């Protein structure tokens, strides 16, 4: 019973990911695509959490935190590029 | 135009310690669990990259005054030193050695010379990624 619930949740998250992929492809502006990619990372975290319950292992739990950190750094880098035109500045106090 | 980065910089100050702690955990978990020197080094350089994004190259190089090319050298020295350590005791190259030690807080812990080799991997990964990112960031 619990297994079926997990598979249903996995299916629903996959549907949500397809919606986000549609937004990444279609998105009229670049910020739309960046937000959709960030949300894709978070749904990927959910997929990994459910998969590690189904596979009865805790070897993947580090990857959840890893994807959270990487999604944050990637989104911050993208937004800084959109805001200022460069990701890493030489000297911001000019 | 001068933009205000207050939210990003404050969040970075808190998140930096979480990321560095996670990378150190990943480094030391490598012997028994998923992790190791490579992913630990990548996460540490990820923390430094977050610092570079929130501030700028000048501020970060003032806070962390490392020459990352020398970090690569020190890491390779650790790896080759561990490899040559076995030769001193008449064993083949890269022979590792471990023992169980009673540490004050941690209790019975196994200390392994593979950790020293892993420190070499960790430093080389940090040095390589940070050299690449800093060189690309500095070029106009």
UniProtKB/TrEMBL annotation, chain A:
<keyword id="KW-1003">Cell membrane</keyword>
<feature type="transmembrane region" description="Helical">
    <location>
        <begin position="6"/>
        <end position="25"/>
    </location>
</feature>
<keyword id="KW-1133">Transmembrane helix</keyword>
<dbReference type="InterPro" id="IPR007208">
    <property type="entry name" value="MrpF/PhaF-like"/>
</dbReference>
<keyword id="KW-0406">Ion transport</keyword>
<keyword id="KW-0813">Transport</keyword>
<protein>
    <submittedName>
        <fullName>Monovalent cation/H+ antiporter subunit F</fullName>
    </submittedName>
</protein>
<keyword id="KW-0812">Transmembrane</keyword>
<keyword id="KW-0472">Membrane</keyword>
<feature type="transmembrane region" description="Helical">
    <location>
        <begin position="60"/>
        <end position="78"/>
    </location>
</feature>
<dbReference type="Pfam" id="PF04066">
    <property type="entry name" value="MrpF_PhaF"/>
</dbReference>
<dbReference type="GO" id="GO:0005886">
    <property type="term" value="C:plasma membrane"/>
</dbReference>
<comment type="similarity">
    <text>Belongs to the CPA3 antiporters (TC 2.A.63) subunit F family.</text>
</comment>
<dbReference type="GO" id="GO:0015385">
    <property type="term" value="F:sodium:proton antiporter activity"/>
</dbReference>
<keyword id="KW-0050">Antiport</keyword>
<feature type="transmembrane region" description="Helical">
    <location>
        <begin position="34"/>
        <end position="54"/>
    </location>
</feature>
UniProtKB/TrEMBL annotation, chain B:
<comment type="similarity">
    <text>Belongs to the CPA3 antiporters (TC 2.A.63) subunit B family.</text>
</comment>
<dbReference type="InterPro" id="IPR050622">
    <property type="entry name" value="CPA3_antiporter_subunitB"/>
</dbReference>
<protein>
    <submittedName>
        <fullName>Monovalent cation/H+ antiporter subunit B</fullName>
    </submittedName>
</protein>
<feature type="transmembrane region" description="Helical">
    <location>
        <begin position="110"/>
        <end position="133"/>
    </location>
</feature>
<feature type="transmembrane region" description="Helical">
    <location>
        <begin position="12"/>
        <end position="32"/>
    </location>
</feature>
<dbReference type="InterPro" id="IPR007182">
    <property type="entry name" value="MnhB"/>
</dbReference>
<feature type="transmembrane region" description="Helical">
    <location>
        <begin position="71"/>
        <end position="90"/>
    </location>
</feature>
<keyword id="KW-0472">Membrane</keyword>
<dbReference type="GO" id="GO:0005886">
    <property type="term" value="C:plasma membrane"/>
</dbReference>
<dbReference type="Pfam" id="PF04039">
    <property type="entry name" value="MnhB"/>
</dbReference>
<keyword id="KW-0812">Transmembrane</keyword>
<feature type="transmembrane region" description="Helical">
    <location>
        <begin position="38"/>
        <end position="59"/>
    </location>
</feature>
<keyword id="KW-1003">Cell membrane</keyword>
<keyword id="KW-1133">Transmembrane helix</keyword>
<feature type="domain" description="Na+/H+ antiporter MnhB subunit-related protein">
    <location>
        <begin position="7"/>
        <end position="131"/>
    </location>
</feature>
């Amino acid at each position: 019973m619990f297994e079926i619930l997990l598979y249903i949740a996995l299916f629903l998250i996959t549907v949500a990911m397809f919606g986000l992929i549609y937004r990444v492809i279609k998105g009229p502006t670049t910020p739309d695509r960046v937000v959709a990619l960030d949300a894709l990372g978070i749904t990927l975290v959910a997929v990994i959490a459910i998969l590690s319950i189904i596979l009865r292992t805790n070897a993947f739990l580090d990857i959840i935190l890893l994807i959270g950190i990487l999604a944050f750094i990637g989104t911050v880098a993208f937004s800084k590029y959109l805001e200022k035109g460069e990701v890493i500045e030489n000297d911001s106090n000019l | 135009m001068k933009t205000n980065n207050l939210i990003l910089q404050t969040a970075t100050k808190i998140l930096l310690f979480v990321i560095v702690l996670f990378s150190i955990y990943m480094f030391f978990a490598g012997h028994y669990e998923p992790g190791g020197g490579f992913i630990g080094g990548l996460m540490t350089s990820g923390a430094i990259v977050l610092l570079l994004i929130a501030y700028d190259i000048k501020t970060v190089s003032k806070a962390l005054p490392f020459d990352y090319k020398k970090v690569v050298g020190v890491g390779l020295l650790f790896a080759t030193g561990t490899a040559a350590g076995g030769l001193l005791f008449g064993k083949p190259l890269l022979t590792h050695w471990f023992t169980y030690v009673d540490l004050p807080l941690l209790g019975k812990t196994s200390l392994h010379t593979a950790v020293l080799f892993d420190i070499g991997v960790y430093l080389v990964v940090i040095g390589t990624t940070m050299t690449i990112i800093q060189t690309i960031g500095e070029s106009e």
